[in-house]
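Quick start: read one record
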Amino acid sequence: MMNIKILLVEDQKLMRIGIKSLFEDYPEMEIIGEASNGKEAIEKSKLIKPDIVLMDLGLPDMSGIEATKQILENNNSIRVIVLTSHTTEEEVTSSLQAGASAYVIKDIATEFLMNIIKMIKAGAMWLDPHIVPFIRDKNCGVIPARQLSRNVFKERHSNLTQREYEVLKLIVDGQSNSDIAKTLTISEHTAKAHVCNIIQKLVVDDRTQAAVKALKEGLV
């Protein structure tokens, strides 16, 4: 299996060491370069041509958003994953508008991060569940313009039951399984089962991808 080549962009040395250590048990991925500022990230991305850039936003010379934009202008086959503790609406939307393929909060579990990296390498998009609601509300050009009506969406995904359709709308609203259970007056176990069925029927990997697909295809 070919390694996924990664450029790590992070201004704090201890943080770089910590992130690098996460990859020790994942031989299919390799950090082939590091950068501590935006200019260095842009130059190294040209030189080493990584598959994935793990991009922090708080860089000393320019924002990670601007670095992302310039990296992708130079090579749009690279995929940028924003890995940050920043969660403001402006930073999220600006990052995605700059071309980032994923927005990941730093407290994520290691195995989940590794799965996201594989998904992004394969061409997917991923948004942290915490930020889906205001992306949905603002849209801001981040999610492609909706072309389908709600009725067309329902026709295209007629294998969804009416209850699953209701649950999917709540997923788009950013509700957890517990929240969905309370909203629909069902057990949390039943809510989880509906979510699993939706993910399977929409042929996506997780609830966030289900929400993104619903947004793209005109559910809301």
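Confidence is low (pLDDT under 50) at residues 144-148.
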